[in-house]
Amino acid sequence: MSRQYEVTCLMLQKSMQHAFLPMPSHPIAIRHAFGRHVIVEDLSMHEQSQNIAGANHGHRFKLRSCLAAVSLLVLATGCSKSPVPTTAATSDAAEPPTTASNDPLLLRAREVFKPIPLKAPDLPGNPATAEKLALGSMLYFDPRLSATHSISCASCHNLGLGGADNSPTSAGFHGTRGGRNSPTVLNAAYNFTQFWDGRAKDLEEQAGGPMVNPVEMASPKQHVAEQLAALPAYRDDFARAFPGEPSPVTLANAQKAIAVFEATLITPNAPFDRFLRGDAAALDANQKAGLTLFIDKGCSSCHAGVNMGGTMYAKFGAVAAPDVRYRPADDKGRSGVTGKADDDYFFKVPSLRNIALTAPYFHTGSEQDLAKVVDVMARAQLGQSTNPLRGRVAWGDVA
Questions:
Q1: Is 216 an annotated catalytic residue?
Q2: For residue 80, what pLDDT is reported?
Q3: Which residue, 196, 215, 211, 216, is CA-closest to 252?
Q4: Active-site position among 131, 216, 262, 367
Q5: Does the pLDDT at position 45 exceed 80?
Q6: How many CB atoms lie under 10 A from the CB of residue 90?
Q7: Cα(304)–Cα(390) distance, rounded to whole angstroms?
Q8: Quick one: pLDDT at residue 323?
Q9: 8 Å CB contact between 160 and 172
Q10: Which residues of 368-397 are buried (b: 16+ CB within 10 A; e: fewer)?
Q11: Which residue from 66, 101, 103, 345 lies 20 to 30 Å from 205 (Cα-Cα)?
Q12: In whole angstroms, how far apart are CA 166 and each of 73, 75, 313?
């Protein structure tokens, strides 16, 4: 039976103190599904990963202005309460119905956001098959794609760490650090381009970049295919995934298979998704207040769509330049790709899905505190300020 991975629950527990507490070893439920076959499997969190979590210490919170929106972003957009679902939708499952509503906030939200579909998206020119999917999942976790045989795609995009690695920048070839924070792979199929600067048009192109990047996996292009072709099991797997091709073991086909796998890494049916489909009780009063602020203050001008981001480029510092530790002068973002000065400091707007699990933040990975991130963005992008956060912050249960 082939496997289609859908990350269906990235569990955030009851509370947070300040911004981050160590994450205990709670399981993440991973759905392996293709057609009508379903297996539910657990994948443990790293015991001390820097995510927002912990037991409920009974702390009260005081949120003012835009900081109330953090409650929505941290909890409602990413996590389901139950770590192991009793049922799992298959790839041919029907989408849940959208219920008619007269709720003004829900109607406003539907104009800006869309729920994540239950079915993984199709990739243009790269149709998914069971064989291609199985091959892609093996390649994603295989460190032999790197020159040192020590780094895989999952090293920087760990499914147990929110699809990222919870590090400011990732360690690559012989420990060399990359220049930017690793974005989450979860729901990446819904981004209009890949990488912070948009240099890859899609998942397929993105999959090949790190393999041959001398700072990351550092494999020469020719070496990737030679390495895979030398392994009998892979020769058979490529032949099944790409039938009819005389020499199917190629870097291009490896990229296609990995992209098909990555497209299945979606996190549907979060509380916010259920709210958008008409379940008014999916968000509590604080989260609804946060959503109202998020829209009213203008955050949703950039963070919109299925991914609450990933649909456009925006200048980091549209109103006021942020501190250099957040926006260093030597990384000019999109203009490094286009060569146009007008693109200086433009970056792809990141997704806010599962945001509680993907610290540290910004392309520099320079901020751990999500409340501080909200304040920095309010000042730099909107010319507004949030009132200081006082006392300790604790989140209640999500629906």
A1: yes
A2: 43
A3: 211
A4: 216
A5: no
A6: 17
A7: 29
A8: 97
A9: no
A10: bbbbbbbbbbbbbbbeeebeebeeebbbee
A11: 345
A12: 18, 18, 24
